[in-house]
Amino acid sequence: MTSNNAISFFVNQKEYFVSNPNPSSSFNSWLRSQPGLTGTKIMCGEGGCGCCVVALQRPVESVKAVNSCLLPLCSVDGCHITTVEGIGSQRKGFNKIQSRVAEFGASQCGYCTPGFVMSMHSLLEEEESPNQQTIEDNFDGHICRCTGYRSILDAMKCFACDADSSLKDKCQDIEDLTTTECAKKQKMRLGDLRPIQIAGDSTTWIRPSSISELKSFLQELILEKRSWRFISGNTGSGVYKLTSSYAFMIDIGQMPVLRSIDNHGDSIDFGAAVTLNEILKTLTKRSSESVTFEPIAKHLKKVASVPVRNAGSWAGNVALKCQHPEFPSDVCVLLEAARAQVKVYDIVADEYSTHTVFAADGSTLLHLTDKLIISITIPKLTGKQFKMKTYKVMPRSQNAHAYVNAAFFAELSEDQSQILQFTAVFGGISPTFARAVKTEEFLKGKSIVSETLKDALNLLSDQIKQTGTSEYKHNLALGLFYKFYLSLCNPSNLGTGIESGVYPLVRPVSKGTQTFTTDETTYPVSKEVPKLSGILQASGEAQYISDRVPSNDELFCTFVLSEVPNADIDNIDDSLAKQMPGFVAIVTGDNFPSEVQNTHLYPFDTSQPIIASSHVEFAGQPVALVIAETWEQSVLIAKAVKVTYKNIQKPILTTQDAITQASFYPDVVPPVEMGNPDEALKKAKHVVSGEFNMGSQYHFYMETQICRAECTEEGGFTLESASQTHIFIQNAISYAFGVSQNKIEITTKRIGGAYGGKATNSLIAAAAATLGSYVTRRPVRFHADLKTCMSTFGSRVPYTIKYRLGFNDNGIMEGVDCLLYGNSGASVFDAEVDGPTTVELYADSAYYCPNRRYKSYVCKTNIPSTTWCRAPGSLQMTAHADLMMEHVASFLGKDAIDVKFANLYKKGQTNLKGTVLMYCQIRDIYQNLLDKYDVRKRQQDIEVFNETNKWKKKGIAISPMKFELDLSASKYSVLMAVYANDGSVVISHGGIECGQGINTKVAQVAAYKLGISMDLISVQRASTLTGPNSQVTGGSMTSEATCKSVLGCCEVLNSRIEPIRAKMGKDVTWKNLIAKCYSEDVDLTVSHMSPTLGSRSYSSYGVTCAEVEYDVLTGEHQILKVDTVFDCGISLNPSVDIGQVEGAFVMGIGFWTSEQMIYDESSGQLVTNGTWEYKPPTSKDIPIEWNIELLKNSPNPLGILRSKATGEPPMCMSICVADALKFAVEASKRERGLKTYFPLPTPATVEALHNASELHPLEDFILQ
Q1: Which of 4, 410, 899, 1098 stands the most exposed, by the fewest C-beta atoms within 10 Å?
Q2: Mapping DSSP to helix (H, G, I), strand (E, B) and coil, where does residue 956 land?
Q3: Three-class SS of residue 988?
C-alpha cells in the first residue's frame, strides 16, 4: 500500500490539508489546537459528556452528531465537519438554535452549550421537522450540571412539529435576533474510497480501499508477526483505554462491503461497519417484517448515546465483548436472542464461517485472533407464536451500562398455552454466563402455568448462583425472567395487580410551568433578562481559559499520581520519562526547590504539600510534576514515571471506617446545644434512634481544573485561573513562593462550572502551574483531565449522623441529640463540621424543637481532602431533619406530610442559631402548596394505584426548607468606570462568573441605579487589580453582595454627576451628561466594597412536593411530578433565578439517586473515576412534569433590592425525591407483609432500592 502521509477534509466549508497527522490524535485535539476552533470543548475524553459534539458528514451519508474526542483525526479524510462556529456567530449572524438557547436561559456556565447546539443542528439536518419526543431522545449523550435541562429541552422543542403553543409563541418573539438559517447541507465531493497510509512515531494508520486489499495486507502482517487493531468508530476507547500501542491501526469504517445493508426475504444482513443507529433506523422502518425487529430497535436506543451510536458499529461492540468478557454488551445479548449469525473471515485459513454470538457455556464463540468480522444476519420471524422482549436495568435513565440486561425469545403453541422453544440471554451476571441453557431446555414443551414458573425460577436461580454473582444481580435476573413469563400469560389468568409486572416505565415528553411576578417600576431589575453572555456561549465564542491559544514558549505540566494510599515513597524512577519527546523537567519531593514552601493550602493547612515528598495519604496524591512541550506529551511522560512504595498500610476510606478505628482529627469541636435535650428525651413519651449515612458527590464541573501561570519582570506571577477564589490563590502563592501579594495578579473571565469544586481545590492547580513556571521561567499551563480531577481533587464531605429523637403522640419533637461525623479526608480543612456554623445555620431546617444537642467529630481518612460542594453541610443537615420527621411518622403510623407540618417553625420563634424568625412564612407556603397542587387528592389516587398494581408503586412526599443566609463574610470589590466619549460603562468586580448570572445581575442593577440602558454596560473579567481582597465566590451570596457593592458605586457616581445634571436639566442625554462631567473634571471612576459589619442574616424558605413511580421488580423509577414554591424575595432576574432553582434541584436528584464515589477497599483507588461509572442526572432523569413558582408578594426587607439568594437553597429540597421513593418501596413491603421502615440508603440507586425492597423471588413471583 502506498504511503501518502497526508489527509484532507472540510471544516465549516473550508478545506484543510494535514501532512503527517498523528495516528493517535483525536479530531478534537487537532480542531482546538490547529485552526483554533475552541467552541468545541473537551472534558471527559470518553464520549460521556457531550461537550465535544460536532456534525460529521461522510461521503454518501447524511449529517450525524459525533463525539470529536473519540473521533480519530486520520479517520476524517474526505469528510465534511461542521462545528458550532460554522453555523452562526456575532459577525455572520446567529443561528436560530443559538438564539433560542440564549433567550430561553438554556445556558448557564456555557461549557456544555456548544455540544447541545451541535446535536440539535445535526438532528435538524437529518430530519427537518422532528417531534418533541425525537428531540428529547436526541440529548441522551449530554451532561449539563448547571441548568437542570428543562430550559434546554424547551429551547430545542421549539423546533418540533408538535411544539406546544407556549413554546411557539416565545419563539416568535426571538426570531428577530436570528440573521442566519441553519447551515445548508453540503454537496459532497464523491468518489472512490482512497486508500491512505499514515506513518506515526509508533503506529501506522491504514485505510484499505477494498476487502481484497485488506485481506492481502492482513496476511502480510501475520507473516511478519506485526500487531494491529481494527478501527471503525473508535467508540470503545471511551470504555477501555488502550494500554499498549499497535503497529497498525486499520480503518475499516468506510469499506463498502462492510458498510452494506442487504434486505432479503427471510433476513437482513448488516456489514460489520454498520453503526448502531443505522441498524436502529433500519429495524424501526422494517419493524413489521419480524417480531424481533422492534424490540431490538427499542433496546438499541438505550445503548450509549446518539453520538456514540452514530459512530460505533455493532461489530465493534461485539469485539469489545470478546476482548473484555466482563463488558455487559447489549448488542451481544440482543443478537443472540434474535438467533443472529455472525460471519467471520479467518485470515490465516483464508475462509469464512458463521457463528452464534455465545456458546452453550456462556463464552463468546467469536475468538477474533487473526479474524475479521464481516457481517451479521438477523432472520425474519413472523407470526403470533413468536414473542421477544428485552430489558436493560441501569443506574440512570439513559447513557449507562447495564447492571443486568436480558433478552428472551419464545415460540409458543398455536393456542399460546405452551412453550415450544425458549431462549434466555443475560448480560452483566458473570463474564462466563450468558445463556440459561438448562432453563431453556426445561421450558420446552411446558405449559404456561404456575408450576412451570416455580420450577423454572428454581432452576434459573441455581444456575445464576453458581456464577458467584451478587444477590442483587441474582434477584434482578430472576425478576426480568418473571416479567417475560408474565407477558406470555393470558392476563385473565393473573391475579390482581400482577399484570403490572409486564409493562416497563414509560416516560412521556416532559413539561412544566414557571410562575413569577416582576416589578416594572424597577426594570431592568426584576425583569426576565437573558444572560449577557448566553448567546456567545451558544455560538462557541465565549472564551474559557482552556480556549486560550498557547504562546510560542508555553509549556504544560501534569501530575504523576500515587497509585496507593497510606504508604511511604520508596523510589521514583524517571529515567524513561526523561528520554521521551517533549520532556522539559520533573519536580519531585527530592528536587523540590528549597526556597519554595511545599504547600498549596496556606493559611488553612500548610501540612498539605503540592508534591508529596516521603509519604502519600491517598491514592491519587501528586508525587511528581512533569513539565513538557505539549499537554499530550506531559500526559504520556507522567505515565512513564515509575513509582514504588513501602510500608503500605490498609487505608481508612469511609466515615464508618474512621468511627470504628477512632480516626479523628485532634481538635475538639464544641457542641451546639439549645435547651435541655437530656431532660427532654428523658420525659418524652416516644424516643427513636437511628443512623443516617450520606456519601460524597463529585462536583462534575464541565471545565476541568485549569490554571496558567507566568513569571513577571518584578519577580512575581500572573495567573489565569478557573477559580472561585482569587484571594485564596493570592495568599497561597504569596506564602509558598515568598512573593508579596502586589506582585501576583490573578484574572478570570468566566469558568465552566464550579459548585464549590473550584474554591480551595483550585489552589492545587494554581500551585502546580506556578511551580512549573518558577522552575522553567516560562509560561506553564496545568490542565487536569477528568480522572485526575476525580481522583486528586476533593469532593463533597460524606456524613454519618447518629440521632436520638423524643416526641409526643402527635409527632411533635421535644428533644434531639445528634452525633455528627464528617469525613474530611487527608486534611482537616473544609470539613464543614469542624465548627458550629454549619449546625447552627442548617441543622434545624424548617422544624422547631426547643431542646437540641449536636456533637461533631472530624474524621481523618485516606481519601483526597474533601471540600465544599453546592449546599455544603446544608444539604445533609436539612435532609437529616427531614428524615427524622419521616422516622417519627413511620413509628406513629401517621402521614409524614402531617407530621412535618406540625413541626414547622412559626413566626416569632427562635431558631438554633438564636435568631428570632420575624419573617417566617414556611407554614403558609406549605399549606398553599398542599392546596394549589391538590396533594391530598393525589395521595388518595396513589393509594388506589398501589392497591391495584402489585409490581408498580407510586410515592409522594413533601420537603420544606429554611435556609439561613448571611452577608457578614461577603466582601467583594467593584470597579466602575464611565468613558467620557460615548458614556459607556465598564464594570469589573471581585465575584466570579461561573454560570450563576452574576454579571447579568450586576449590569441590571447598575442600569437601574444609573438610569441607563443595559446596552451601555459591559462587565469585564475579574482581577486582583480591579477587585482586590474579594472573598470566595460561593455560599449563594456573591451575586447579592456584589450587587450591593455596585449600588455603592452607583451612589458615589450619581453624587458626583448630580450637580452637573441639575445644571443641564432632566432631559439631557446620558452621553452629553457624561461628556460635560468629564469637561468639568468629574472623576468618572469609582471603586467600592460594601461594608459587611452589622449585616443581618435572613432566611429563605421553600417547599417541594415530589411524586414518583417505582418498578418493584427492577428498582427503576421515574419522577412523575415535582411542584416547588420557593421564596426568592423579589427576584433580580426571574430567568436566572429559576435556572438556579432547577439546576440545584437536579444536582440534588443526582446526590440522592445516582451519584456514587466508590473506593476500592484494598487499593484505595477511586473506582468511579469517569463517565462510565459515575452517573450524574441526564435530561430524562428530571421530573416529567415540573412546576416552579417563585413566591409572590414576598419582598425581603433585609436583602439587596428586596431579593433573596437562589444558588444553593433549592438543592436542600431535593430530599423529597428520595422520601417519595422510600414511600413507594415501603408500600410494596407493606403489601408483602414485611417491616416497612428502613433507613434511607444514599444514594438511593436502582440497586439500593431493589435491595431495600427485600424481594424473595422464589416465593414472591407468582401468577395468582
Answers
A1: 4
A2: strand
A3: strand
3-state per-residue secondary structure call for 273-305 = CCEHHHHHHHHHHCHHHCCCHHHHHHHHCCCCC
Dist CA 495 CA 759 (whole Å)? 57
Q: Find, among 202, 159, 53, the residue nearest to 114 by Cα.
A: 53
Query: CB of 689 within 8 A of CB of 804?
Result: yes
Amino acid at 843: A
The answer to whether 1187 and 513 are in contact (CB under 8 A) is yes
Which of 214-223, 696-705, 1005-1014 is predicted with the least confidence, judged by mean pLDDT? 214-223
Give the containing element (helix H, strand E) for 1252.
Answer: helix 1246-1252
Using one digit for the tens of pLDDT, what is the confidence trace for 1136-1184?
999 999 999 999 999 999 999 999 999 999 999 999 999 999 999 999 9
What pLDDT score was predicted for residue 2?
53
pTM above 0.70, yes or no: yes
Query: What's the confidence (pLDDT) of residue 695?
Result: 97
Helix (H, G, I), strand (E, B) or coil at 980: coil
Residues 1033, 994 contacting (CB under 8 angstroms):
yes
CA distance 393 to 1255: 16
Letter for the amino acid at 923?
A: R
For 630-680, write each residue's pLDDT tens digit: 999 999 999 999 999 999 999 999 999 999 999 999 988 899 999 999 999
Query: Could you check whether the bond before residue 603 is cis, i.e. omega within 30 degrees of 0?
Result: yes
User: What is the share, in percent, of the chain residues with pLDDT greater than 70?
Assistant: 98
Q: What distance lies between CA 960 and its chain's CA centroid?
A: 26
Distance CA 1213, CA 957 (A): 11
CB 298 within 8 A of CB 391: no
Rounded Cα distance, 416 and 163, in Å: 42
Q: Which run of H or E residues covers position 880?
A: helix 874-892
> How does strand 706-711 pair with strand 622-628?
unpaired
Q: 154: left (phi > 0), else alpha (psi -120 to 50), else beta?
A: alpha
Q: Distance (Å, rounded) from C-alpha 776 to C-alpha 771?
A: 9
- Reported residue count of the chain is 1264
Strands 1022-1023 and 6-11: unpaired
pLDDT digits (tens, 9 = 90+) for 954-1005: 999 999 999 999 888 789 999 999 999 999 999 999 999 999 999 999 999 9
- Distances in whole angstroms, Cα of residue 510 to Cα of each of 305, 926, 1012, 1222: 19, 25, 40, 23
Distances (CA, A) of 113 to 118, 130, 156, 533, 814: 9, 20, 12, 12, 50
Mean per-residue pLDDT over the chain, rounded: 95
Q: What is the mean pLDDT of residues 711-716?
A: 97
Residue 183 is predicted with a pLDDT of: 44
Query: What does the CA dihedral 15, 17, 23, 25 come to, rounded to 10 degrees?
Result: -60
pLDDT at 187: 44
Span 345-383, pLDDT tens digits: 999 999 999 999 998 777 767 788 899 999 999 999 999
DSSP letter string, 381-449: --STTEEEEEEEE-SSSSS---SEEEEEEEEE-TTS-BEEEEEEEEEEEETTEEE-HHHHHHHTT-BSS
Give pLDDT tens digits for 1061-1085.
999 998 999 999 999 999 999 999 9
Separation in Å, CA 118 to CA 114, 851, 1254: 6, 56, 45
